[in-house]
Design brief:
Shape: elongated
Structural class: alpha+beta
Number of helices: 6
Strand content: 5-15%
Largest sheet: 9 strands, mixed
Order of helices and strands: HHHHHHEEEEEEEEEEEEEE
Distance between the termini: 110 Å
Radius of gyration: 36 Å
Number of domains: 2
Helix content: 55-70%
Length: about 400
């Protein structure tokens, strides 16, 4: 009887050990990034591609007619913006792929660890069966000393046999899971490499579009009459924009006053809107750059910037304009109080929206050459009391302006 009790205890101990070993968490890791996230980005990319094709059709229709140069330049700017969006989309896809691959690698490593633990458990069960011998289950049953003892032994053996089969089933399931994880991981890596190749191609395309856009403006000097007509149109558009800016600035100030908010209309306190200090054109009369630039320049052009330089809010305030125009291209206007505004033009990308409050030094966009521009630069304007002022000569100190420490180009 004591032997039977010992055997039963050993069997129960084995079952307890098995239960502990099987307690390993077999639940797959939940992914923070899914393929669905990447597929959504691909859907956006498809929409951008369709937009690009439509823009190209319009450009092809205009061909090389010089009378439509500004119209073509505007379309090219839109095409550049589209390609830039495509690049941002592909970069987002690559980031998602990187995260997804890292997660899948972690999931694969976890599955392999669980497989190793399960395989060790399987080996223990095999060794245990070898020690018992091939007829160990039957010998245990035949040694029952009573019918009650027999039923007890039978229950234990059924549990052990079921546990043995579960060990094998779980091991096989883990092996299938690992193979599927490897296949999925390789697929994600291949798609990531394809996205990287696409990114290189789109960046080359963007450079070609920028070159074409600048060339259109330079070609406009073909006839004097066409150039003068375009200049008149540009001048009229800029004056209309300036009037709208002042209307919006007054409207914002009235709203703030009605809400009991302080309205800052104190002039001064500006910082450089870009990291460059190289002035290519100042406020006032000048020779028209490329035959298309205004001869009565209303702002300050800051050069030696590319298509990726950040543009900073020169002073804290509320964004009242963030849009595109034929003359300014992509531009932003910030109101700093009634009659006091700053304007930032020819951006490649705008980073703020109307109604947004920005602090001095916040990035509001990226430099570029959109609109009436012959190359990448920032066109910067300051308006005080409704009048544009020269930031290089106008300031609290009559001997110097708001922006100091600059270098003038020979053509400025």
């Amino acid at each position: 009887m004591r032997k039977t009790v010992k055997k039963t205890c050993r069997a129960l101990a084995a079952l307890l050990l098995l239960a502990c070993l099987l307690a390993v968490d077999l639940t797959p890791t939940v992914l923070a990034v899914t393929q669905a996230d990447i597929d959504a980005l691909k859907g956006d990319a498809s929409d951008l591609t369709a937009q690009r094709k439509e823009l190209q059709k319009k450009l092809d229709a205009l061909a090389s007619d010089k009378s439509t140069a500004i119209q073509r330049k505007n379309l090219l700017d839109q095409q550049i913006a589209n390609t830039s969006s495509q690049i941002a989309n592909v970069e987002a896809q690559i980031d998602q792929y990187a995260a997804l691959i890292a997660q899948k690698e972690a999931e694969l490593a976890d599955a392999q660890e669980r497989e190793a633990a399960q395989y060790e458990l399987f080996c223990k069960r095999v060794r245990a069966m070898e020690k018992r011998g091939t007829v160990s289950y039957w010998s245990v049953l035949f040694k029952a000393e009573s019918f009650t003892d027999l039923l007890s032994r039978l229950d234990i053996i059924n549990e052990i046999m079921s546990a043995d089969q579960k060990v094998i089933d779980d091991l096989q399931a883990l092996q299938v899971e690992i193979e599927e994880a490897k296949t999925s991981l390789e697929g994600s890596k291949e798609e990531e490499e394809a996205a990287k190749a696409d990114l290189v191609s789109k960046k080359k395309e963007l450079n070609a579009q920028r070159t074409a856009a600048n060339k259109v403006i330079q070609e406009l000097t073909a006839t004097e009459n066409e150039t003068e007509a375009v200049l008149d149109d540009m001048e009229a558009e800029q004056e209309a924009i300036q009037a709208e800016i002042q209307r919006l600035s007054r409207e914002l100030a009235a709203q703030q006053a009605a809400q009991g908010k302080p309205v800052n209309s104190n002039p001064g306190g500006y910082i450089w809107p870009v990291d460059s200090r190289y002035i290519t054109s100042t406020v006032g009369g000048r020779t028209s750059p490329g035959g298309i630039g205004s001869t009565n320049h209303k702002g300050t052009d800051i050069g030696r910037v590319g298509y990726t330089s950040p543009i900073y809010a020169s002073k804290s305030g509320t964004v009242i304009v963030s849009q595109r125009s034929s003359s300014y291209g992509e531009y932003v206007v910030i109101s700093h109080g009634s009659g006091n505004t700053t304007l930032y033009a020819h951006m490649s990308t705008r980073k703020v929206s109307v109604g947004q409050y920005v602090n001095q030094g916040d990035v509001i966009g990226i430099t570029g050459s959109t609109g009436n521009s012959t190359g990448p630069h920032l066109h910067f304007e300051i308006t005080e009391n409704g009048v544009r002022v020269n930031p290089l000569s106008h300031g609290a100190d009559p001997k110097k302006g708001y922006l100091t420490g600059y270098t003038l180009s020979k053509s400025a």
